[in-house]
# Entry
Amino acid sequence: QVQLVESGGGLVQAGGSLRLSCTASGRTFSDDAMGWFRQAPGKAREFVAAITWIGGRTYYADSVKGRFTISRVNAKNTLYLQMNSLKPEDTAVYYCAARTGIIVVDSTRYDYWGQGTQVTVSS
# Structure
């Protein structure tokens, strides 16, 4: 059974940085895409960034491009999201997700999800 476990969330002031981690277990990832999504109170879950497990191709939402960096360490089965220049509007629960195949931004097409980690950015 695939498990994704996020960590690294917290409270930070606007302009600050945080790094989220997502450790995967339960299978060997190869032809997969791993993504980060977020959900703020009262809002729909939205795509943040994704990366292919092999090759490391990345894709970002326009709202985070230039501020966030997604990466992975295959040997550790771990996905990261480095978040810089954080804004209050980045406040949300952040989820890591995985799917077999190419990167897509539609959350319904991801098969595995973590439990989420809260990120709060104060102004």
About this structure: The radius of gyration is 13 Å. The chain has a mean pLDDT of 96. The chain has no helices and eleven strands. The CA atoms of residues 7 and 101 lie 25 Å apart.
